[in-house]
Design goal:
The complex is a heterotrimer of chains A (324), B (297) and C (300). Chain A is an all-alpha fold and 324 residues long. Chain A has 11 helices and 2 strands. In chain A, a hairpin with a 4-residue loop joins strand 1 and strand 2 (75-78). In chain A, helix 1 packs across helix 11 (286-323), helix 6 packs across helix 8 (218-247) and helix 10 runs antiparallel to helix 11 (286-323). With 297 residues, chain B is α/β, with parallel strands linked by helices. Chain B has 11 helices and 11 strands. The model of chain B is unreliable at 1-19 (pLDDT under 50). The chains are: A mainly alpha (324), B alpha/beta (297), C mainly alpha (300).
Chain lengths: 324, 297, 300
């Protein structure tokens, strides 16, 4: 042992002096391994689920994008579910985004700091309600009531061009695309609100004062200064909400209506990818199961991509805000 | 400080802090006003509180039209607080309260039916750190006129050009009006903010240490600009830089931090207000003298 | 000599009244809309909580919390959700034991060892991304990797939940570690400590409040998750105290099942389970806030 070890005091003869820092290296490796675990798990997810889905991809090929889901007849075109995932996510965003941005602006620009805390608590409570409880309430309480409302609306818009396209139709159900989208909206509001608020709060006070000093009203200040500053980050927050809405399974599974159809009528029962997986996996087999797995793979890919873009957008706007 | 205690002794205090005010401020007037001589701001016994803290106590001073008035004094003496009271920017601070009287051209600035927005339209402000909006140069200058309802493209173009010329920035940016205001250098950005402020054609322009964040050359440009703007606007400037005050201002007000060791409180007061020449060459109050000769902070 | 200070009569008495009404109206309208946005969120929240409490409270009793799960057709006063409660608690506990230490270690890697390196940035970014992966994917993943080989078990469910919790714990722990000032680390190094020692004996204790709070929030989320458990734990109607082998059940699983049952009894038991679940999640959330309030030293 002729190398100089900085951990050992020079000239020391104490037995402690000869303890090599194995613990130090071991710990560092442990930390590294834990860090890499994330990457490993993500890779394993991609690989293992794709393997399981392989028979579906090979059996159906591009036909997976057709609206042709009939296990009994050995047909597994998944377009209806892809459509449903997209539609419910869009409905959720259309409903949740204005509300979330409104609350975020309310918290940062309008209310006193003292009042902000309770408001934030309330919004966070929306997130504490488990997905399955939203679903339970949705199907047992909301859907029956909503059915009446939807029917009234559907007959009311009969004949009106755009509205009857969306809200008309014969097949009206409390459990439908719209209900699923609405409940998804409740569920994504907390995260879109909190992220938007973070971004909006970074607007430099001096810019806001500059607008006020020119005699702007509060709304003029918001639209003239806060919004241009925050819109990048808010887009990122919205994308994260989109990712969440696409993947939210249980609430959707309970209230979407479980009917694999493609229709523009939002009050009709429908289906989406996570919901069909949740509902039918148990009784699936062979290519059927591979098909559900495959939809899981698609969902995984979509949400990963959306999240990467979203995080990238949020980080870029945060960097610009710091630099500007 | 012993000086303040000597001055405080013998005062009949209306309230605990009133006794801190010390003697009446010394206000002297030159024979010839530099501007039109009209009274723009008439401030009487004005105090500002932030919550329980009395930042400024019983300030009385007149501001005259088309002159440059400088507020000088050490940190915490209330200069910026008084300045912000003129355009009701203190309203934006929760818990801020103004007592006393502030008249602008005969109208009570803090009257019950007065809108701060209307006040700020007439009394503009340039800040210490240039704060161009994240918009193009054109849109920065056009922001004020636009929110006041101006939509006509030609008129906006005219206003933008006129304001940028007025801020001595037109020649430098006329070919890149659509580029971002954030891309300008410090001195240019500040002139953009001045252009933005004068675009709404205010009556008064308040400046809170407008050049302290700038390099000496930009500072010189801003000071030259102030002289040009004087004929169109009334200017009140807060500055830490005494040489700047002597260079640009017609009148100077010296503010001071009064500490009351008995109650362990402090507040800002106006000590002396006179023509700039008199303040710097012949200060009457010993504290003014100490400050302008650099003996004090 | 003081100034004669009378407000002079002016040629134009200036009016400082309100700006034109359309600007004021627009401003007021926007403020109303913003308040409305908040109120709109109160409505569903209120409805759900009130319904869960109302319908659930009527069935909750000691017997409900401890009895086995009866067939759905039986009325509400028979049986209970005992096995589900035990299942939730033991599966979540196991998931926590797996995910939290690994998550903290991962955060330690990113913040203490990785620094500005590319790998650490990638790990941090992908942890963020992983928090957005749908929970059902975790269920499918563990089903493929574990359940196909080892059959249903609480452990499988715990693994799936741990996959869900891991990135959340990593990110929240990392934020807390970032807040610990470098001066603490330097002081410890100066005394001759190794990096591992510095991290474990100085940095972690300084951040422990925030880390625990973040972990509690992750647990709160995990207790409510159904999708990861769907294909990994199976179903039982009586308590399985062995979380490592044999099928198991959980509150969310039972609620999911009962939600689609046509029988009043099953539905009532579903509400009871829902109330229990919400209370459990709520307790963890409150605990997290309490820990934050009590221990957050560097969170200002």
């Amino acid at each position: 042992m002729t190398q100089v070890d900085p951990a050992i005091p020079a000239g020391s003869t104490s037995p402690l002096a000869h303890r090599r820092p194995l613990g130090d290296r071991g710990f560092a490796l442990l930390a590294l391994a834990s860090g890499l675990l994330v990457l490993v798990v993500l890779a394993l997810i991609a690989i293992s689920t794709s393997q399981q889905a392989a028979s579906w991809f090979s059996a159906e090929g591009l036909k997976i994008f057709t609206n042709n889901w009939n296990p009994a007849a050995n047909q597994f075109g998944a377009l209806a579910f892809i459509y449903g995932t997209a539609i419910t996510a869009v409905i959720a965003l259309v409903l949740a985004v204005p509300v979330s941005i409104g609350i975020a602006l309310l918290l940062t620009e309008v209310v006193q700091p003292r009042l902000a805390r309770p408001i934030v608590y309330v919004v966070d409570l929306l997130a504490v309600v488990p997905s399955v409880v939203w679903g339970l309430w949705g199907i047992l309480v909301f859907a029956p009531w909503a059915q009446h409302v939807y029917s009234s609306i559907a007959s009311g818009v009969n004949g009106i061009p755009v509205l009857s396209f969306l809200f008309g139709g014969q097949n009206i159900s409390g459990a439908s695309f719209f209900t699923a989208g609405l409940i998804l909206a409740f569920m994504i509001t907390p995260i879109v609100t909190s992220l938007s608020r973070e971004v909006i709060a970074t607007t430099p006070s001096i810019d806001k004062q500059g607008a006020y000093a020119l005699g702007a009203t509060r709304w003029e200040m918001i639209s003239g200064v806060v919004w241009p500053h925050s819109k990048g980050g808010v887009v990122g927050a919205v994308l994260l909400g989109l990712g969440r809405a696409m993947g939210e399974t249980i609430a959707a599974a309970l209230v979407i209506g479980s009917s694999a159809t493609i229709t523009s009528h939002l009050f009709a029962p429908g289906y989406n990818m996570p919901a069909v997986i949740a509902n039918q996996f148990g009784e699936s087999y062979g290519v059927f199961r591979a098909g559900l797995m495959g939809m899981g793979v698609l969902l995984f890919a979509f949400t990963i991509i959306v999240n990467i873009i979203a995080r990238g957008v949020v980080e870029r706007s945060a960097r610009r805000a710091r630099g500007a | 400080m012993e000086q303040s205690e000597q001055n405080v002794a013998g005062q009949t205090g209306k309230k605990a802090t009133a006794s801190m005010r010390g003697p009446e401020p010394l206000v002297r007037h030159p024979a010839e006003p530099a501007g039109t001589g009209n009274l723009i701001f008439d401030v009487r016994d004005m105090s500002v509180w932030y919550g329980g803290f009395q930042a400024v106590t019983d300030v009385t001073l007149p501001i005259y039209e088309n002159e440059i008035t400088a507020f000088i004094g050490s940190s915490g003496s209330g200069k910026s607080t008084v300045l912000r009271a003129f355009n009701r920017m203190n309203d934006l601070v929760p818990g801020a309260r103004v007592a006393g009287e502030m008249y602008y051209r005969g109208a009570n600035l803090y009257g019950a039916d007065v809108s701060p927005i209307a006040v700020r339209r007439r009394i503009g402000m340039v800040f210490q750190k240039p704060n161009p909006f994240p918009k193009s140069i054109y849109d920065n200058v056009a922001y004020g006129p636009r929110i006041n309802g101006e939509r006509n493209r030609h008129r906006l173009d005219e206003i933008v050009e006129r304001s940028l010329r007025g801020a001595a920035l037109w020649d430098e940016v006329k070919n890149r009006l659509k580029t971002s205001g954030l891309a300008l250098s410090g001195g240019q950005a500040q002139r953009l903010c001045i252009a933005r402020t004068i675009a709404v054609e205010p009556d008064v322009v308040l400046m809170d240490e407008p050049a302290s964040a700038l390099d000496p050359i930009s500072t010189g440009a801003i000071e030259d600009l102030m002289h040009e703007l004087k004929s169109r606007f009334t200017i009140v400037i807060v500055t830490h830089n005494m040489q700047q005050a002597t260079r640009v201002s017609d009148r100077t007000a010296f503010f001071y931090v009064l500490t009351d060791s008995a109650s362990d409180t402090r507040t800002g007061v106006l000590v002396e207000y006179a023509s700039t020449k008199q303040i710097f060459e012949d200060p009457q109050d010993s504290r003014t003298q100490a400050y302008v000769t650099g003996r004090m902070g | 000599m003081t100034v004669a200070a009378q407000p002079q009569a002016h040629p134009q008495k200036v009016s400082l009244r309100e700006p034109p009404s359309w600007r004021r109206t627009k401003n007021q309208l926007m403020t109303v809309l913003m308040v409305l946005a908040f109120v709109v969120t109160l409505v569903p929240l209120g409805f759900v909580l009130v319904t869960v409490i109302a319908k659930g409270a009527s069935i909750i009793s000691w017997s409900f919390l401890t009895s086995s799960i009866p067939p759905p057709v039986l009325p509400a006063n028979v049986g209970g959700m005992g096995p589900a409660i035990v299942g939730t608690l033991e599966i979540t506990a196991l998931a926590t034991v797996i995910a939290v230490p690994l998550g903290i270690l991962g955060a330690i890697y990113i913040n203490e060892y990785g620094g500005k390196g590319f790998l650490a940035q990638v790990v941090r970014f992908m942890s963020d991304v992983m928090t957005g992966v749908p929970s059902i994917i975790m269920g499918l993943f563990i089903f493929t990797l574990w359940t196909l080989r080892f059959q249903y078990s609480g452990l499988g469910g715990a693994l799936a939940l741990a996959c869900l919790m891991l990135p959340v714990v990593i990110r929240s722990s990392e934020e807390m570690l970032k807040l610990v000032p470098d001066s603490l680390r330097e002081g410890s190094y100066a005394l001759g400590a190794t990096k591992a020692r510095v991290t474990v004996t100085v940095v972690l204790p300084a951040a422990v409040g925030g880390i625990v709070s973040g972990a509690l929030l992750a647990v709160a989320r995990a207790t409510g998750e159904t999708a990861p458990l769907l294909f990994t734990i199976g179903i039982v109607t009586s308590v399985n105290a062995n979380v490592f082998s044999g099928s198991n059940t959980s509150l969310p699983s039972q609620i999911f099942l009962n939600a689609t049952q046509p029988y009043d009894g099953a539905q009532a038991r579903g509400w009871g389970a829902a109330l229990t679940l919400v209370v459990i999640a709520f307790i963890f959330m409150i605990a997290a806030r309490l820990v934050t309030a009590r221990f957050a030293r560097y969170q200002r």
